[in-house]
Amino acid sequence: MPEMGAGTQMIVLFFLLLAIRVPVAFSLGLSALYAMWRMGFGLDLAGDLITAGVARYSLLAIPFFILAGALMGSTGIAERMIRFFRVLVGGLPGGMGVVGTVVCLFWGAVSGSGPASVAAIGPMIIRGMEEDGYARAHAAGLVCAGAALSIVIPPSIGLVLFGVIAEVSISQLFIAAILPGLFMGLTMLAVLPFIAPKGAGAGPALAGMIPDPYAGLPYGARLWRSFRDSFWGLMTPLVILGGIYSGIFTPTEAALVATVYALLVGGLVYRSLTLRALYDTLAEAAGSSATVMLIVAYAGLFGWVITVEDLVSTYSGGLLGISENPWVILLVIMLILLIAGMFMDAITVMFITLPIVLPVMHELGWDPVWFGVLVMINLAIGLITPPVGVNLFVAANVAHLSIERVARGALPFLIAALVGLAVVAALPGLSLWLVHWLS
């Protein structure tokens, strides 16, 4: 590859390593180290760059949000939430499909991670939808699509990373993502009439899914008691987001508050947090956090090579040269993000593409907050698109189905998500209205 510079060789090597199934983090690291060797830099500089890449205060939010979500799943908060929403909206047309959508949106404000949301609430929702008569593939597809919105609905790990990379206010990103996230949820609800079986909503209340101690009581009594049981879990998003928007604590501090809150609720209120459960949860969260932070560390090295080789100017200039119409350029960027999301996880896509597309954003005068929300929706869709949609793999494991069947079940929701993406792109006010109103 003598005609290519070290940076371009690095990108080619990265995709070659991915093709032979080298883990993403090591593909990033090995290709970046190769480029640095070609450029004449030593490993001592690589160590400094890796350390600098992860030694950012804002990144502390990631492991703590992951831990908070894991704790809320292991302490029974998810079960209580699903029971409450089942009683509240389970009798509506669509039955458990409506419940699944609502719970996915609500859990997105707790977890912040798509795959984690699938693992935490997927088994219960899929089983409940099957009891209501839905096909298992459609149930798994709904969980895939709904959980993908976890990286859109605040507090979102993806938005935290975008704010760090783009140097944009994370609080404003959180505010801006609220209405688009809810709108994307509405597009999911619009799909239900096309996949819902006749009589959905009339199935057994929660039989076989979550024990319902209040079965047989009048509706009002069941609703009140299920609300009382789930109250502290339902308060979680209000505690996290209310504290951020009122200025009591920053988004990074909110992650620690969420963790402490989950420990208090699980240990003192619900009394469901045993030492064994705490150990397992800490181990699970540590593994997930290590995976994310390893990608962040090596992606920083990868991004440094891109900057030094001036690939940003080369590729961003190429994007600007495609057309003089900003909408055409935006369409190309979204296609790049969607295609990249088919093969890589959201964090990797951001670290590789944002250094190139952010200069284009500034050149064209796009609002960085709106653009950040748009990027997150693109990457959320990537979580449910084969061949490497991460949510598909987790849902297939949870539902005991093949990836192909889960992908077919998720197809209606994928189409709806693309429609929602087009609306959010065409109407920036949907993202920015709340930011301007609160500022």
Describe it.
The chain is mainly alpha-helical and 439 residues long. It folds into 2 domains: 1-41, no CATH class; 58-438, no CATH class. Helices cover 76% and strands 0% of the residues. α4 packs parallel to α7 (114-131) and α16 (326-341) runs antiparallel to α17.
Short description:
By secondary structure, this protein is mostly helical.
So what's the oligomer here?
single chain
Helix fraction by DSSP (H/I, runs of at least 4): over 70%
Please state the structural category.
mainly alpha
The sequence of SSEs as H and E is HHHHHHHHHHHHHHHHHHHHH
Largest sheet: none
Strand elements, count: 0
Whole-number mean pLDDT: 80
- Proportion in β-strands: under 5%
What distance lies between the first and last C-alpha atoms, to the nearest angstrom? Answer: 52 Å
What is the total domain count?
A: 2
Shape summary: globular
- Rg, nearest Å: 22 Å
Unreliably modeled segments: 200-208
If helices are DSSP runs of H or I spanning 4 or more residues, what is the number of helices? 21
Pfam families: DctM
Organism: Paracoccus gahaiensis
GO cellular component, one term: plasma membrane
InterPro entries: DctM (IPR010656), TRAP_DctM (IPR004681)
Give me some keywords for this one.
single chain, 2 domains, 21 helices, globular, 439 residues, mainly alpha
